[in-house]
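Anyone have tokens for Methyltransferase domain-containing protein? Sequence:
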Amino acid sequence: MNLVPEKNSDFSTTEYWDSFFTKRKTTFEWYGNYDNLKRLLTKYISAKDIILMSGCGNSDLSLNLYSDGFINMTSVDNSEVVIANMNNKHKTKYPGLVYEVEDILNTKYADERFSAVIDKGTLDALMPDGEVESLTRAMKMFNEIKRILKFGGRYICVSLLQYHIAQFIFSYFSENGWIIRVCQCTEVEDSPDFNGQPVFMVVCTKVNKIPGANPVLEWNPDGLTNERLDSINDLLEIVIDTQKSVSMCFDLTKCQMEDISNNYRFEINCSQTKKPRYTIMIVESPTEKNPNKMTFAAFIVPHGREHEWLFSSEEGQDILRRNCNVDRLAIISMHRGQIYKDLKQVQQELSRLMLKIAPQGVIKRGETILFLSLEQQLGERKIIMENKSEHSGNFVIEEVVGQNDETFRRLVFLNMPHIIQSETKLLIENGKIKIDYSHFLSDYIPYLGLGVGIVANQLDKVPKILLIGLGGGILTNLLLNAYENATILALEIDPFVYEIAKKAFGLIENSRLEVEICDGLEYLSNAVKNNDKYDVVIYDVDVKDPTLGLSGPPKAFLKQDILNNVKSLIGEDGLFLLNFVCRASDVKTEILNVLKNNFKQLTSLKIPEDINRVLLARNNDKTFDAELLEQTAAYMNNCTKSNPLIACDVIDISALKENIEDI
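Reply: yep, here.
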């Protein structure tokens, strides 16, 4: 039996519905049954209301409401077939149930007859598209509802809120001064026959229009909290976002995501601030894809530790999933600037969402969602400074408690909130906070220092270093502490960053360090004109646009004229070192080819558990072989061990050889 019309416009014809209800005698519920809608619907009507059920069809909604005490109700439909069926079905047992043939676009009822009009799918049937014919029908229905509804009465519309429908209903009733509240019918999403399309209840309350007043627009996601919005566009955006998120959760439950990868990431915003509160990373087994067999758990990352390799890299996340012994793991990260009371609060906030994204077999088996964390601790993050820089935008300096209760101080630019720009470990000695100069966020810093050591290890050399990108000064501090004869000119375009390096990260300032606030590109050009020479030029510069797939150095520093300047400054015997961070394989290949065409020797040192690479380049025939690098590492470790501020090895010589990459 085919009940699907040939075209969408048939949904608006009486002939289609007569045929539909002739063929289908059993009850048909559009957009959920009474149990799915009762909590919200009965909040906006009372037993005293005189109710019009528009487009009733053969739904049991009128019967259910009548049985719950809503007896002043008239149910109408333009299909004579269905009205005859419903009268025959209920006239004996429920004689008070009134079913009448009426066209909701033009009824016989008196003005202001009803205190509530309920529409469950009628508007959607009348507006299959946004064409003029559909808009005209909807306008007629709204005008009729406005006429027959009492002052203070409510038009309650249950709808999928396709964009053209949402835009029209919001615009019409806001222009007439009515109060509009959109509720999400979450019980529909919990029903076993849910199809992935969220259902909304739009409650439009008839009030007098106040000239010049802004429309009252509200979003009610849970039936409890109302959020006042400024514009129709804001309300439309929330509806669209909700539709996308519910659809995504449905696809996750059914394991039918179109993305061929095994990782999915999304954010949950704070309802008050609209800023991200949680980031959820879904990590799945590459083998088990049966939603009825998959196992599931949620892992809460301790506050401030989301940057760690285990939680931020694909490899680390999959290891974490396997360690948790589940097929799907939701890795939950908390955001700075948000307040979290304890783990229990976080679990309560996210428990419903976790049920929504768990494979359907977890729910069918009646399993409780398992929340995991490290030592069941929420973690601690304290922001000690917030400001805005002209060059770098908004930034924070925060202190985070990590493993073994160690405290780390970090600089984070908020345009790239998941990337730590600089980090140092804090020590407490005699009640005072001190900088741990032996701590490095990544091995790329000691590896850059290793490159400098190649020059510093030459007995006749007093290394003259040009560092482009001071940052928090971590690399500068290492070079000053490791190589007593080195002199450094550090360039930093952002004066804020220079002040941060001094005040928050213990920048060592002495006669061997000069810091210049300037544009590195301009300095390179001027230095060549001045016939300056350096033993080492280092690029440790980040890219401010996180969407390019290249985090450093910026492409402007790799243009041919700039590379010519670098080659002129270092001559034949000098070294060029780069902190190279690139996620896009095509961009990576392009940049490496450019460097290979400019330098006779080019070697890459990979950083385990990190995307950073340290590139070593020069323009003579001396290779960066394993023997040279291991000898230099031994020299560097001797230097750092003899300095009381570090007093330890900074490079693992045993792992160095395997980190040398062919280019």
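The first helix runs from residue 14 to 23.
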